[in-house]
């Protein structure tokens, strides 16, 4: 496994664009550190400091940082599809197979690299969240600090699932731009599935239950939006704001299932393709 990861890291390091995108994908999530220290002066009437609003308290901070950091995954998604596109355009895929790398090892090298970067990103977000929380949070008890750390697990699984989807699209079309366009197409398809389910069931609840099993929707559901939860802390008397924001094991299982499907399909495409 280490040999395959080292092989991919060497390829990425030699590519200037990939180096820049990887750097951006790791740095941008840390903008939450900057946001936590922002002070907004409203015409000298009062100063709004985000860190003083309580949104960086434990345990809610795990939810907030992982949700917003997950939106920066598109930068590394470009790297993933580029890994495949460059293999075809530079003829390195064929050369690797000639040099003794099997097709299975080729796909695994891409997947292991995805897992490596996903775990690294999860670790960095975990450290950043812990540091911000320890600085701003009113709660310092260990039981409260680590109460909702499962959001980190959901974040890591979300990255692995999404990048595996990008790997499959990259293998399917062999071009970076087209592979990313397929994400938009899939998004539209999932909504078409929703409306088809609504047509046959007659209820939005049943339609959403069907849509929740789709790839992009299942990945999004791992970490639900925290805005409504923040509002709940400010207006606890409003029961209509209550919603289920927890990380559930079956949601993780669905994404892991899609991850296995995407990696398997990528291998089958390469296995059957005439190089």
TrEMBL record:
A Pfam family that the UniProt record links to this protein: ABC2_membrane_2
GO MF terms, alphabetically ordered: ABC-type transporter activity
One of the record's GO cellular component terms: plasma membrane
Protein keywords: Membrane, Transmembrane, Transmembrane helix
Record field: transmembrane: 20-40, 60-84, 111-132, 152-173, 180-200, 249-270
Protein's recorded name: ABC-2 family transporter
Annotated source species: Winogradskyella epiphytica
């Amino acid at each position: 496994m280490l040999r395959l990861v080292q092989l991919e890291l060497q390829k990425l390091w030699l590519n200037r664009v990939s180096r820049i995108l990887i750097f951006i994908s790791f740095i941008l999530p840390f903008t939450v550190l900057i946001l936590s220290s922002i002070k907004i002066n409203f015409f000298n009437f009062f100063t709004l400091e985000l860190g003083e609003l309580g949104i960086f308290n434990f345990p809610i901070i795990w939810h907030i940082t992982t949700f917003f950091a997950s939106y920066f995954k598109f930068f590394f998604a470009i790297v993933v599809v580029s890994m495949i596109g460059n293999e075809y355009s530079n003829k390195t895929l064929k050369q690797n197979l000639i040099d003794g790398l099997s097709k299975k090892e080729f796909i695994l090298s891409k997947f292991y690299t995805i897992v490596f970067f996903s775990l690294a990103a999860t670790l960095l977000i975990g450290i950043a969240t812990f540091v911000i929380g320890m600085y701003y949070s009113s709660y310092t008890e260990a039981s409260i600090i680590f109460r909702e750390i499962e959001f980190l697990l959901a974040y890591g699984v979300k990255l692995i699932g999404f990048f595996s989807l990008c790997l499959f699209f990259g293998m399917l079309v062999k071009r970076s731009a087209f592979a990313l366009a397929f994400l938009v197409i899939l998004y539209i398809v999932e909504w078409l599935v929703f409306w088809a389910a609504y047509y046959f069931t007659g209820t939005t609840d049943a339609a959403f239950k069907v849509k929740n099993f789709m790839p992009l929707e299942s990945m999004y559901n791992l970490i639900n939006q925290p805005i409504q939860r923040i509002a709940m802390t400010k207006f606890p008397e409003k029961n209509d704001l209550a919603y289920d924001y927890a990380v559930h094991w079956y949601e993780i299982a669905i994404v892991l299932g899609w991850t296995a499907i995407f990696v398997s399909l990528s291998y089958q495409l390469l296995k059957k393709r005439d190089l």
